[in-house]
Amino acid sequence: MNKKRVVVIGGGTGTHTVLRGLRIYANELDISAIVSMADSGGSTGRLRDEFGLLPIGDVRNALTALAAEGDEHDALLRQLFLYRFTEGVGLEGHNFGNLFLTALTDILGSEVEAIKAASRILKVAGRVIPVTTDNVELVATYDDGTVVMGQHAIEETSPQAEGARIVSLTLTPEAGITAEAAEAIKGANLLVLGPGDLYTSILPNCITKGFKEAFLASEAHVVYVCNLMSKKGQTVGMHAAEHLAEIALYSGRVPDTVLVNTAPMPEELVLKYEAEGDHPVINNCEGDLCTITALPLIAGELAAVTPGDAMKRSLIRHDSQALARELRAIISKI
User: Fold this and answer.
1) Contact 189, 218 (CB under 8 A)
2) Which of 53, 63, 147, 304 reaches 20 to 30 Å from 100, CA-CA?
3) Which domain holds residue 112?
4) In the chain, at which residue ranges do the beta strands (DSSP E only) sit?
5) pLDDT per residue as tens digits for the range 176-216
6) What is the CATH number of the domain that holds 145?
7) What is the CA radius of gyration of the chain?
8) Domain count of the fold of the chain
């Protein structure tokens, strides 16, 4: 049987969620994940600063999402890759999977070879591909003239950028897409963007040199999974239509389908988000620019906070299986 080729583009927990659901259908889908290389926070940022290597946090997230769970040994190995140290001088906050990938890179001499080796060890159902192997920093320019460099600085909301909107996103120095990523995009049947932080997980892929050309050359059906909540310092005041416009601006192409959530959110959590300046993302799309598919997409269980994790994480997340079912339904019609 010829498997349909699905390529998920993004980074962070959003990409992990999509891949975790799609892995169930690995026997009928050829799955690839193209991940951002602009991460500079948390354990990843520390290792990047200390060893001068490419950021591997998003890679590790994708690898563990696609890792085998055939028996107790597979499950334990996946748990090990997700383990985060909660104490220890120099170790506190670090993720074991990040340390493992760093060691593999040192042994094998390349991040790409380390990813391939880790994929074999974890018996990954698919491929994890860095969008670039160039060492880059993300740069955001806001409408008040403020310029913030570094994914982590943008994530944490620079005080000077409070209330301002991002009007330009670039990489410094200019980075080129990997040949493997370009080939995967061009050969895909289904391209999935998101969910994930728009300006720090999704769009950093789109602004890599050569991405737009590969994206426009692809005959794949493009799906954008819209975020559930806004992100302070990035997308406050933006809803589905504004997200869609930014995707089109930076990728050069309007997605064919946008998935938006209709399930009600826990009121107490919404209030907590709103107290910090965020809000639910609603469907405000109009016209027939693309197909808007509205359906319940919220996970039944709230995301657990991992001990030792210094990064701020989303509490309300997508249901990985619901996403996978809908994506499978879309690709079955292609």
Assistant:
1) no
2) 304
3) 4-332
4) 4-10, 29-35, 127-130, 137-142, 147-149, 166-172, 190-193, 221-225, 257-261, 291-295
5) 999 999 999 999 999 999 999 999 999 999 999 999 999 99
6) 3.40.50.10680
7) 19
8) 1
